[in-house]
Amino acid sequence: MQPFNTVSGSAAPLVASNIDTDVIMPKQFLKGIDRQGLDRGLFFDLRFLETGEPNPEFILNQPAWNDAAFLVVGPNFGCGSSREHAVWGLKQVGIRALIGTSFAGIFYDNCQRNGVLAIQLSEAQLKQIASVISDASTARIEVNLPEQTIELADGTVIPFEIDQLRKQSLLLGLDAIGTTLQRADQIRSFESQHLAENPWLV
């Protein structure tokens, strides 16, 4: 995974409540046997008109936010089915972090496993961010994971909390397997000792 340290970019407001994984990644894009092409499916029914043309009213199709690195989202974002494709699609369009008040549990874990930072804030903090980034001229923010801060274009700095194990994994760009392999020497040592003490297991 790509390590997450300090990232700057535009933040797109998408603050409707209960945006589920079928909206994020519709079912017709789940048929492939790999992760390729999921950027096309992301928010498909919102991003495109029935004619297939981009919907000019959708936030990610507007010039200030079409290369957004962050989404500022409404409560219970990522609810619905557990499809990991939703997070894969977000990554493929360049989303590095999500900022909201709450996320569905499985979706939140899928973000962590795939290197997408999911930041949980209070409703008041989220409204403050949304009010600033909704203006194209002040849409850029900086997310500093080591310091656990979000800096807005007007100079406001908002702190956030994160589980320290999740933080370390994101800083190092490690998924669950990578984190486990950091202890490969200890694992091999335990296996050798355990088999020596219990030779009947061989």
From TrEMBL:
The keyword Cell wall biogenesis/degradation does not apply. InterPro entries: 3-IsopropMal_deHydase_ssu, Aconitase/3IPM_dehydase_swvl, AconitaseA/IPMdHydase_ssu_swvl, IPMI_Swivel, LeuD. One of its GO terms (biological process) is L-leucine biosynthetic process. One of its GO terms (cellular component) is 3-isopropylmalate dehydratase complex. Keywords: Amino-acid biosynthesis, Branched-chain amino acid biosynthesis, Leucine biosynthesis, Lyase. GO terms for molecular function: 3-isopropylmalate dehydratase activity. Its EC number is 4.2.1.33. Pathway: Amino-acid biosynthesis; L-leucine biosynthesis; L-leucine from 3-methyl-2-oxobutanoate: step 2/4. Pfam families: Aconitase_C. It catalyses: (2R,3S)-3-isopropylmalate = (2S)-2-isopropylmalate. Residues 1-123 form the Aconitase A/isopropylmalate dehydratase small subunit swivel domain. The keyword Amino-acid biosynthesis applies. Heterodimer of LeuC and LeuD. Belongs to the LeuD family. LeuD type 1 subfamily. Catalyzes the isomerization between 2-isopropylmalate and 3-isopropylmalate, via the formation of 2-isopropylmaleate. This is 3-isopropylmalate dehydratase small subunit. The lineage of its organism: Bacteria, Pseudomonadati, Pseudomonadota, Gammaproteobacteria, Pseudomonadales. The gene is leuD1_1.
